[in-house]
Amino acid sequence: MVTQTPLFAALLLLLVTLLGVNTSLTRMRLKISDGDGGDKRMIRAIRAHGNALEHVLPFVLLLYFYEQSPGASPAAIRWFGGLFLAARIGHAVAMLRGPFDLRRLSATATIVLEVWLTLALLRNLL
């Protein structure tokens, strides 16, 4: 029975949606109908949205499968989901206008959490 994954899926997909809205608003503000127009602000908006989508969807699937696996820990689900959400928010902020160190830290946290959750899922299944 799924209990916690939908909450994290909703919050993470809300972040992806907000980044998509930001991309559209940036596109309208800069009057760029297609592509990035060579504008760094447009490039950052597009990449922030795309990067979030590239990581959020696989993570939500991993979290769902982990939650369904034998021996899944509700506390681990909350930690994985909460830390990943924080990492993705930090990454989005850093990509749009924050310091590069925040981007580096949040990107590293994203990868570490993805690998950690994958290993936890494999441990539960094997």
TrEMBL record:
<dbReference type="InterPro" id="IPR023352">
    <property type="entry name" value="MAPEG-like_dom_sf"/>
</dbReference>
<keyword id="KW-0812">Transmembrane</keyword>
<feature type="transmembrane region" description="Helical">
    <location>
        <begin position="6"/>
        <end position="25"/>
    </location>
</feature>
<keyword id="KW-0472">Membrane</keyword>
<dbReference type="InterPro" id="IPR001129">
    <property type="entry name" value="Membr-assoc_MAPEG"/>
</dbReference>
<protein>
    <submittedName>
        <fullName>MAPEG family protein</fullName>
    </submittedName>
</protein>
<keyword id="KW-1133">Transmembrane helix</keyword>
<dbReference type="Pfam" id="PF01124">
    <property type="entry name" value="MAPEG"/>
</dbReference>
